[in-house]
Amino acid sequence: MVRLDKFLVDAGIGTRSEVKKYIKKKQVKVNGSSNVSPEQKIDEEKDSVCYLGEEISYEKYAYYLFHKPAGCVTAKTDKTERTVMDYFPEQMRRKFSPVGRLDKDTEGLLIITNDGAFHHRLVSPAYHVPKTYEAVLDKPVPAEAVTLFQEGVDIGDEKKTLPAELTIFPPEDKDGKEQCRAQLVITEGRYHQVKRMFLAVGCTVTYLKRVSIGSLSLQNLPKGEYRRLTEQEVEDLRKISSEKKSI
Ligand code: URA
Q: Which of 107, 110, 192, 196 to mutate to test the pocket of ligand 1 (most atoms within 8 A of CB)?
């Protein structure tokens, strides 16, 4: 059971004060009646709640896939910078958080949710969820980096990195200049990890994009846009993050 005003806020209809106004204006009906109060208890399984004639389904948790553009910070709020949450409606910003962190200049896949347990499992190194990054480097990555990354590399932390899978692509011609690209799959999320790993083999990352987490990828979601994850996608992410590995 949940209060009607909380039910409406959680469903993304508005802030607590906004939904109270909607209730007062009789725009909300419970089981066909608009004679309702904000504190009235709703049975999420049985009661039918409508706002402006449309039935609202109650979901405690929601999961979004966001294509982060460069130039915004991965935070809920920031005094000076645009944050990833600024791309979402106002009423979501308090309850939802980005899962893990992408640097301000990094683009790509970011999950946004209000499910704390799910969040924890995806970011915890104990669960080894693979995250795939595409990087452009200032110079060719030495071939030995493949084995080095596989064995774990010293990036100045207490421990070496966990085994990571590096693929080096042949250099491409881009506007008359050689572009060096690589793909890296890591299962941790240390601070600036990808950049520091490449730096350990003498390369500076000039562009970075996260393209997938587990089997979830951006596909053709445009930059700066988001969409709800399907039940299957959430289920798949739960599955890959459900087995605790020994580190
Ligand atoms: N590793 C980095 O160095 N930066 C990111 O944004 C993500 C992973």
A: 192
Give me the amino acid identity at 241.
S
pLDDT of residue 156: 95
pLDDT in tens, 119-172: 988 888 778 899 999 999 999 999 999 999 999 999 999 999 999 999 999 988
Mutate to test the pocket of ligand 1, among 153, 193, 204 (most ligand atoms within 8 A of CB): 193
Q: What is the mean pLDDT of the chain?
A: 92
Q: Write out the E strands in 73-231.
A: 97-99, 107-113, 131-137, 165-168, 172-174, 177-186, 205-213, 216-217, 226-228
Q: How many CB atoms lie within 10 A of CB 228?
A: 12
57 to 10, 11, 28, 49: CA distances (angstroms): 10, 7, 13, 8
